[in-house]
Design brief:
Elements (H helix, E strand, L loop, with lengths): L5 H14 L1 H11 L4 E9 L3 E8 L4 E8 L8 H19 L9
Antiparallel strand pairs: 1-2, 2-3
Helix pairs in contact: 2-3
Organism: Subtercola boreus
InterPro entries: DUF2470 (IPR019595), Haem_oxidase_HugZ-like_sf (IPR037119)
Protein name: DUF2470 domain-containing protein
């Protein structure tokens, strides 16, 4: 496993958890915890991302580790692309409408 700098990881986790909590839930429901009620991204590296999912009704938590769709990545700029790809694939798998990703 190859890690990104801790400041990079912290910034991305903060962004995903503060600005995209619903996206985290879509990704987790599609790729590992279909009964999740909420999810937070807790780690990432060059291989993939890790989320904690809270399951209903007991509020049990599970870790969901999902590899990046394109395989191993090396640059910070690739992280956004891979998270968007995960979200798009998750939305498709769950039958949700496609979203235009701006910015």
């Amino acid at each position: 496993m190859t890690a990104f700098e801790s400041a990079v990881v912290a910034a991305i986790l903060s962004h995903m958890n503060n600005d995209h909590p619903d996206d985290n839930l879509v990704i987790v429901r599609a790729f590992g915890a279909p009964d999740a009620e909420r999810a937070t991204m807790v780690d990432l590296d060059t291989i993939g991302g890790t989320w904690t999912a809270w399951l209903a009704p007991e509020d049990e938590t599970v870790q969901v580790v999902i590899p990046w769709p394109a395989g191993t990545i090396a640059a910070r700029g690739e992280i956004r692309r891979e998270i968007v790809a995960l979200y798009d694939a998750a939305s498709s798998a769950l039958g949700l409408p496609a979203r235009d990703h701006v910015g």
